[in-house]
Design brief:
Blueprint: E1 4-5, E2 9-13, H1 19-26, H2 29-32, H3 43-52, E3 63-69, E4 72-85, E5 90-97, H4 107-122, E6 127-133, H5 137-145, E7 149-160, E8 163-173, H6 174-183
Parallel strand pairs: 5-6
Antiparallel strand pairs: 1-2, 2-3, 3-4, 4-5, 6-8, 7-8
Helix pairs in contact: 1-3, 4-5
Length: 184
Amino acid sequence: MSTIYGDRVRLRAVEHDDVKYFFEWVNDPEVTRGLAMYLPMSMSDEENWFASLAKRDQKEKPLAIEIRKGKTWKLIGDCGVFDFDAVNSCAELGILIGDKSEWNKGYGSEVMSLLVRHCFETLNLNRAFLRVYTDNIRAVRSYEKAGFILEGRLREAVYKFGKYDDVLIMSVLRSEWMSRKKEL
């Protein structure tokens, strides 16, 4: 897959040099608050994760998120499409903006819009979905901006920070995306 460009971000293949940043981010409780991760990760864990990427199908490999900073690009996180269901033509999306200095600047919405376009134009999916914790209000807003619609709620489906929380299921269908694309 070639690099995917947006107005302010690009999505590219994950490289070995990215691992040191991922290691830092997945061990920051503020960054992982909205993720399914709940235990510390070692550098060895991250190295093993990176080595395992070679065995994944090309379409399921994560993508590094970079933003333009002058004439260079700055890594701020990663995202991806996974758990493909070929029969039903759908897959799940995920995102991590690890660089906290770049939070609240709209990059998440742009990345999700690019991923959705990738799902429908490149991967030929009919439905893209994600899971998000109800207390992750910033993420929910970001997903809504990218066209995701609330589909349902898994009640008290996750245990984090000493309490159970609901998980929201959000999705976007190809037909919705096509209608929205025509409006823009």
